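Q: Can I see a sequence and its folded structure?
A: Here is a first one.
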Amino acid sequence: MPAGQHTANIIDRIVVSGSTSVIRAKTLESKDQASAEMPRGEQRKPWLYLAIILGLTMIISSFLEHLAKGIPLGFIVPFLNEPATVSMILYHLALILVGGYVGILGLKELVLERRFSVEFLMAVAAMGAAYLDFLFEGAMVLFLYSVAEHFEGYIEDRARKTIEKLTEYMPDMAKIIQNGTEETMKVREIKPGMALLVRPGERIPLDGIVTEGSSHVDQSIVTGESTHLSKREGDIIYAGTLNIDGVIKVNVTKSAEETLVSRIVKLVIESRKRKASIEKLVDRFARVYVPIVILFAILTAVLAPTVLGGPTHVWLYRSLTLLVISCPSAFVMSVPATIFTAITVAARRGVIFKGGLYIEKMARAKTVVFDKTGTLTLGHPTIVEVTRFADNVDKHVLTYVAALEQYSRHPIAEALVNAASEQGLDFRRLHVENVQEVSGKGIVGTVEDVKIGVGNNELMRTCSTNHLDFPDTIDDKHSCVFVSVNDSITSAFCLADDVRHDAVEAVRLLRSSGVRTVMLTGDKASIAKEIAGKLEMDEVYAELLPEGKLKIIDSLKVKHGLVAMVGDGVNDAPALAASDVGIAMGGSGVDVALESADIVLVNDELIKIPYLRKLSQRAVKISRQNIAVSLGVKIAIGTLGFLGIIPLWFAVAAGDDGVTMLLLLNTLRLMRVK
């Protein structure tokens, strides 16, 4: 069979036919569209019944032939000119029924798309065997093919369900608030700007921002995050995620076809277009392989009796074996099925590959380059040190600081408030008045009748009496804010952009697998070296402008080969584009990341980078194994068939359908990669 055909049969059914229910996420016309687009799924159902018919025919007919010589009926069958028996009639009825059905499918493919399909070749082989009076072999060919088709469908269903899980829980209806009243509306009719009401236990129907209430949300179906995340006013929330324990109001920001789930599914489906070079090689090989083997089969039937001698029917039988071997289904489907299975498995874990090309490149990458801010680090300051200048400092000074800073939107203020929240400090109940934010310096106010000032040394000069006794900074590597209580500096908080919780482990795993790790940043060298030291990076480059990052990436490609670049998907777009594989952190900038990168970490988990490299390497390895096994088996079976050592049914069982199922099972090993 030709290069594209079985690929279409396998891959389209693995995900694209399976994606008839996946594509529903793009329009959220889920139930209606899914039912309208299921003919491929329905097409698979007859194969089991056809296999049962053929199996029963062979069992009953063989039983009758051995015990009663087929039960002669006492007349000659027209056209065949053979004595009629019950077993012969059963065989011919089954072959006409099943072979006709398979042949029509193949003939339709040949006429409309001008290519030999596996159905056409199998039908010709079965009918040819019947013509030569090898009725059992003809029935066995179709039986094995029907069983293989049904079994492949079962395996493909398992593979496509991986991506279907992204959409199977998408609700069709949602509750909205209009004019102060609650209404139920179809999700596909809801527009951005409308207000959703989501109760505990309900799925979030559309992407949006929480405007009222708070709750824990299970968003594992979208990002792969296993723990429930707290969502409150101002937080982004994604369609398909599950509201756990609170009532929330959500302002819709995306229509049904623009949600994160929809875009992820669309990217996964479209990733088939970006083929790996090994896929293209297999396609080109198959386009040459198929016609050559078919021509050889024809020459075997026509010329071999004259050139090599022997009965015509013997060489015709052997040519049918070669015809079956001409089906390149095993090696044609092995690579795209493996690559696409890897893409869908990764998608379920919050990693979006935008094509098989990037799986192949990621497997070969020798260097992974990381941006610092927002990639290796959190991208916002956190408290790393607290310094007290007096023994009698109130240990709850952070409570007073947070009570005051909650009225500021400065990143440092948010860091102090977050630190107080994480420690469980009840700062919101404190009485705060006379709040004044001093631009570029800090904030002052009164908390529970205590005068509090939080800011830099310039602010301290105006609101403290002892500022001359303290240095301008505590640590030049960190941002420091002083705290004055009743006009006296009592303590300082040192803040820094801390590393992500999984960055150390991600870098360690990459280095242990032989990958060189490099950090690029525009920050000062002292800060960069401190972060690189914590992570044990191989190389670090600091104080870089965007064009400087590009030059370093180019030099790394020359020195070490393929380079993968990990960035936040916004500021690092040029560097991501210059690298062989651009990996973007999704996070709040997920829209930009989906557009700019080759791979997207939806949940910003750096630990997924060693995983996706391992997955990529396994996918490439399995693809090569499948190609080698399928070609080896084809050559061996073809040689044995030409020599007449094996029967036709064995060529089908071992050389085509059997090895195809074996390779599909081998592909499913990707689902076990951790």
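Q: Show me another, different protein.
A: A second, unrelated one:
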Amino acid sequence: MPTDTTARSKVIFERICFFLIPAALYHIIKGDEVFVFDFSGTIKKSIILRWLINKGKIRRIFRKRITPLSGLAIDETEKVYGDIRNTIPGIMAKLFKDQDTDLAFKKILVMEVFECMYINEELHDEQKKRDPLSQLYFVPYEYERYANLLHRHSNFNLRPLNRVRFLHIYKPLVQISRLASNIFWYCVIGLYLIPTVLLLYIMSAKKRRNPEPKVFKYGISISQPFQTKFKGGRSFDFLLDGEGINRENSLFIFDHYGDKSAIMENGKKAYCYYDIRETLSIKGIWSARCEAGELKDTFLALVKVLFSGSRERPFLMGFTRGIHIFLRWHIFLQRFSIQNYIYANQEFFIQIFVNLLLKRHGTTTWNYPIYIGGGILYTKDREYEKVRQLAWAYLMSDYSLTYNALVSKYFENHLQKVNTYVDIGCLYSEIEREVGKGVERQNFVRESFGMDMAEQYKLVVAFDTSFVDFENAVTTFDDCIHFYQDLSKLLKDNGDLLMIIKPSKGDSYFVSPESHWSSPVKGKKILEQWASLRAHPRVFWAGDSGDPPTLMAVSDMVITHCMSSPTAEALGARRKALWYESGNKHRDLMYDQIPGLICHGYRELAERVHQLFYEISDEEYEDFLDKFVKGNIDTYLDGLALTRFRQLLKGRILSNSFNIHR
């Protein structure tokens, strides 16, 4: 947390909702420092707050990405949940006919518990740093509620906040805000969901008989921007093999942020797709067919909650969102039958509701790997309890696929309800190898760099990561600046080097006032560096939509900022690769214990690049991979993870070919 040693008063808000904006403005005018905790990254959605933040009038306190409190919050949620649990989770469990709906509500509650614990620790540390002449004020929102629950039901000891003055003068505004929030969710139930259910009932009653649902063997979720971002080897349809998994038996299901236009363009209309987001539109309701019994149960559940008088905002929100998901997917499942539902990167609580509903219809759910390993990247001793993360708490699916056994073991510590963990390796490594068979390096260099004689140059592809403008983050904007400075120096010091640069984000991420992490000063400096590199004659700027497998396939080495996944993908394909950082934040961590895998600072980078290009033979590098990388990053290191996944989906599970944990 930023600190000031002057006598200026600091006022920290737990949240700044609409009704607390006048209070924040009062303290700004008064000359106080004003801070607010930002856990969800949505504060800038408010136009007023966005303006105040961009002007530097309000500063945000972000949570550290890796903190032992995440794991502790998961443990404490188990103790608190029984007391806070009211009629809402029970009503939802009855509707879904499954008690595992508790997982979704625990998923919501764990964040509330974590916020309380994190705020307590930050305030405790801040009060020790403050000048004795200055005042430290705190405006609580939900903090005291969860602090009392932890005090009554857990062994977790909140730290004393003797020098923090709680501004209870704003308690009426907080209560009004809570009331407004509850009224909002009750209005959603009474004015939107109940009429929607009644309309669905009327429309369904007009239809004599539901047609048999269309059967698809595979339903593939398109719910994240990255799934339609790439047009090459990592395109949305990479799972299809043209044989057992093909266009005819696979349905692409758009949800959340899936970009349907990306599939519709360029003659791709031959794919079977369904936009589940349109299910509850007027057109969707008009054509919907629902079971009367299910609609009756949904209606009764809504009425019960509407008259329950519950004031638990997290549960009200979870119930309302859950019913919305229930209706969407219930309508969908009247039209389609899916044998296998495949998704990735969907850790929000609504995915639990989706999986539970699919489970009722006999669908097998598959969560395939995107992350290298989550918190295990940030442990020195493989004590996973210290590096658990909220994103992976309480997940449920039939299968969860991972890079290696270490990751599977790590996920098991998150109270997940996964039937089977399977270590299959890195999916994208096989894609990179397959793409490489059709890419001609000489042509690529000629087209991209405007030069011939590609064999005279060494070709490096550099990937960055998601940087954030927060001083305590693992990867900051300063790290980004230094990363690109060192890439420029590497080019300057090596005249035989060509470089492909593939950033993870576009320009607006760094400078747009509406972007969550934008910085007018540092963002501008980053873009200036980018402009210089774009103009360099030995640089091909692939942009944030460049296709990673193609870029890796033509390169001689992959350099990735810690700890983004392209280096792991390259290693899985047995390519020369390393992670790089200009500082020492990843010094001595688990993967840093592998010699030469993580370079810290320009000197180490330059030396390792020279070693891999001129000192280490191909045979020696193969030995390095087998000795240090195999098992630690990729279980098999054979570039066949995608083949294994396809075999699993088609029911071809050979016990001697898979590491399976139940």
